[in-house]
């Protein structure tokens, strides 16, 4: 069974998102740092619905950027 690349990205990011949300240094700042991650997933799924395809490299780089945002949300 072939999985959708956006779903694979979501499944890879979810554990980091859960870790980031668990007792962050400052909850308000954490939400402000991590909210672009949610907006990014919405944008990716809208782009997918319109028929746009991103390369695997682009998805990996987007995922790494999301991880950076979540780590900074944990500690700022």
- Strand percentage: under 5%
Largest sheet: none
Number of domains: 1
Net shape: elongated
The poorly predicted ranges are: none
Structural category is mainly alpha
What's the Cα radius of gyration? 13 Å
Note down, in words, how this protein is organized.
- The protein has 76 residues and is mainly alpha-helical.
- The protein has one domain.
- It has helices at 5-21, 27-49, 56-75.
- The model has no long low-confidence stretch (mean pLDDT 88).
- Helices cover 79% and strands 0% of the residues.
- It starts with a helix and ends with a helix.
- The longest helix has 23 residues, at 27-49.
- The relative contact order is 0.22.
- It is built from three helices and no strands.
- α1 packs parallel to α3 (56-75).
Task: State the gist of this model.
With about 80 residues, the chain is mainly alpha-helical. It is built from three helices and no strands.
How is the topology of this model organized?
Blueprint: H1 5-21, H2 27-49, H3 56-75
List keywords for this structure.
mainly alpha; 76 residues; elongated
């Amino acid at each position: 069974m072939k999985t959708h690349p956006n779903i694979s990205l979501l499944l890879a990011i979810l554990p980091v998102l859960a870790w980031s949300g668990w007792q962050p240094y400052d909850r308000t700042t954490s939400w402000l740092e991590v909210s672009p991650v949610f907006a990014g997933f919405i944008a990716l799924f809208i782009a997918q619905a319109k028929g746009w395809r991103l390369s695997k490299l682009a998805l990996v780089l987007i995922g790494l950027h999301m991880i950076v945002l979540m780590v900074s949300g944990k500690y700022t």
